[in-house]
Amino acid sequence: MDVDKSAEQPVVGPKEGTPTPEAQTAPPAAAAPPNPDLEAYNQKWTTVQNDPQDFNTFTALLGIADRLEDAEKMRAAYDAFLAEYPLCYGYWKKYADAELRHGSAEAAAAVYERGVVATPYSADLWAHYAAFKKGLPEATPDDVRGVYERGLAYVCTDFNSHGLWDKYLAFEGEQASTLHVSSLYCRLLACPVRELDRYYNSFKTYVGPLAAAQVILPHDFDSIRVRLEAEAAAKAAEVEAAAKAQAAEAAAKAAEAAEVKKEEEAAEGAEVKMEDAAAEGDAAAAAAAAAAAEGAEVKKEEGGEGAAPPPPPANGEVKAEEEAKGPAAVTDDDIKQAWMKQQEAVYEATRAELAKRRPFEEAARRPYFHVKPLDGVQLFNWIKYLDHMEARGEPTATQTVYERCLVACANYPEFWQRYVRYLEARGDEAGAKAALDRGVLVFCKRRPEMHMFAAHWDELHGDVAGARARYVHLLTHVSPRLIEAVTSAANFERRQGDLPAAVKYLRDLTEEERSKEGSRIYPFLAIHLAHFLRRHSGDLAEARKVLDEALEQCPGVRSLWEAAVHFEELAGGPEAVARALDLYDRATAPPAEGTTAAVAGKSLPERDREELSARSVDFADMYGSAAQLKAACDRHAARFMLPTTVTAEARAATSGGKRGHEGGAAGAAKAPRLDHGHHHAPPPPPMAAAQPAAAAHHAMAAGHHAAAYGAYGQAPAAAAASAAAYSQYYGQYGAAQQYPAYGYGYSGYGY
């Protein structure tokens, strides 16, 4: 009999974590829907990683990052953006606000610190930082004041810094510190800011009802008091000296008058006595009287006891004596009035300076940074402003304007280069080096001309290794195939005496372009390399080989043939004329019979061959022998018996064009053929000249007069032909066209 053991066993529930049968059979929970913001973030992140200069996508990425709850993604987006655009002060504030939303005031403070280091001349960012610091519960007034003071150290004289000044004044007003407020006003009156007049009026209104001790700093108060007391003492001394002098003068006058009166009385008495004595015959009495008169004279001279006392002083003299007893005490009102006069003088001087700067400041309509280029008017205004400041000869003020200029013009290498040269001219080599690194490593890091300028600067200052490193970076990461960069690096190595390295730079790029079908710059590079070898290595054979390879690959490039001829002119030697005429022969030879249209299309056009042939006649006439001249004339006559315009009409007539036939017949009937006619053009320059031989037409054996074929135009001048050819066929790289300041004008191949 089977026993149901299940009844004997206790009922045990499912183990914890073990799904119940119902749960096992229940459908799985639906997956969370995808986050569209996260997908958009990832997409835009990939875009800006591939193209960091896509400003609009970058700002859209930051907007998405602000909506996400992922602090790491937010930080990654802002860090990448601000590494590319550190002068966008508004995004430093947004970054700090985002850190606050994620609950980290400490991280927000660190962001502000990074921001004011990256763009210290932004008054707005300093104002935001101070407001942030003020909002921290643990911040003291001195902490907030410290941020304001750090900001004013950079932007106090900024024309548009009134926002920061206003906030600082309001903050100090909240602290009820009249001394701090008045001292701020005093500093402000020395700064040529936009709102200077408003600040001066506010200053007078603020300090008017306050006592001197409330608005004047103690050391200024004491200094003014000492000065006023010294001035009062000096004035009292002057008054006292004047009073004494006046009293002495009055006493002298009174004594003189008394002596005169006494003398007159004594004289009258002596005369009376002498008369009486004479009448009585008393000679002794007369003698005594005479002695008495003589005594009176002596007393007059010595100022005896009989002198009359001086008259009492007048009222004015009494007042002067009272003032001379001691200066009156200097009052607080006296000190305040003197202080106000000082501030008024400062204001007037600053107002005059502001009048000189205001036209430049108001013309700078965009003083902040933006990726959009500045218009030419504003760029020219900054140039004139810098000229004005440099002419003033005030280094500190000029350097401040330079720094402000480099906010608005941060993407322009020309302004960075000018700043470096200015600092260097002042003897501040360390400052020049720092400015150079800022320009080349941060703001113009993708501009090849800035890297080349930095390399030149390093080389001039003896840092050859640093210059070489800059060229390597330029040709590896910035503009690997920019012609100007390659030639600049080659010339650098040449100056260091390393010709193999210099040639390698040129040869590597030349060979790279040679391997490309239809390269537009290969002919130019071949010309440059050939002339480099001729001038610096003296290897004419290798130079000719470079040109021959280029002519074989690009036979339809007229400027290449002209350059080859010019090369032989410069190379000189007994075979120079023969080599040049051989090149003319090869250039003007018609395609061989049976040549396919594709191959014939690579040759020179018939009009170019005709003009080069005419030029060869002039060349042989000037430099060659009689036999060489005859050979050139015969060759030209055989190949171009008729001008190309006429042969074109003939071909059109042969192809069945009735109009062309009639036109050709009419042209032939207008002027009969004249033997030994020729076309003349200006003769070519000497072989040593930098320009190729001038164009001319000769057809001596079976030539034709110009009047017979008026459409047969004169060949263009050599320089114009050369420039046009290069412009049409051998433009620089696309990257080089963005930097016209570094374009090359090889007019006539002036090597």
Automatic annotation (TrEMBL):
Residues 1-37, 295-332, 651-695 are annotated as: Disordered. Residues 245-280 form a coiled coil. Keywords: Coiled coil, mRNA processing, mRNA splicing, Nucleus, Repeat. Gene3D superfamilies: Tetratricopeptide repeat domain. It comes from the Eukaryota. Residues 18-29 have a biased composition (Low complexity). GO terms for cellular component: commitment complex; U1 snRNP; U2-type prespliceosome. It is found in: Nucleus. Belongs to the PRP39 family. This is Suppressor of forked domain-containing protein.
